[in-house]
Amino acid sequence: xxxxxxxxxxxxxxxxxxxxxxxxxxxxxxxxxxxxxxxxxxxxxxxxxxxxxxxxxxxxxxxxxxxxxxxxxxxxxxxxxxxxxxxxxxxxxxxxxxxxxxxxxxxxxxxxxxxxxxxxxxxxxxxxxxxxxxxxxxxxxxxxxxxxxxxxxxxxxxxxxxxxxxxxxxxxxxxxxxxxxxxxxxxxxxxxxxxxxxxxxxxxxxxxxxxxxxxx
Length: 216
Hints:
The protein is α/β, with parallel strands linked by helices and 216 residues long. It has two domains: 3-126, Response regulator (Rossmann fold, 3-Layer(aba) Sandwich); 143-209, Arc Repressor Mutant, subunit A. Helix content is 59%, strand content 13%. It has a six-stranded parallel beta sheet with strand order 2-1-3-4-5-6, with helices on both faces. Helix 3 packs parallel to helix 4 (86-95) and helix 8 (170-177) packs across helix 9.
């Protein structure tokens, strides 16, 4: 029988979860109304599963995910929340949570998802699944552009971009590199095409973030 700890500051919701999980054959080893009590119970009982509210007075659920895993390493932590924020979802994943479920999910689906988590899987409610893939797609797209651009930009183009980042005009860059002003403009145009960007400012910011150039 899998053991469960429930941490939620809303008494009605907390007790409803206790009753529902008990009815489904789980061993509810404790309930807590705040983060610190939840940490103490996790340390004492080392439950298989911790159902954790995201928004609580004092410390939030996100702030204690790492602590719960530290005091009870075998526990699988699942955030159960009303928040549909993609940022909260990503923070939960980074903190080590095994699931992120919105509170409007039907109980049978929640129970089924928790069995998946206990079997070593992860659980995200349908409302958040699309947001997770959207964020992941954006990260992969950014990394793809970064990797491709690092390879595609020539040494001369990086040199020109560095001077653009230093605030120099096309004329000043041309004089410094002993090339024509028209050649400088062609280099800038090629840089923007390769990066898929629309302005020198955007290209300089990207190159600085990627560590390709230093901006003075």
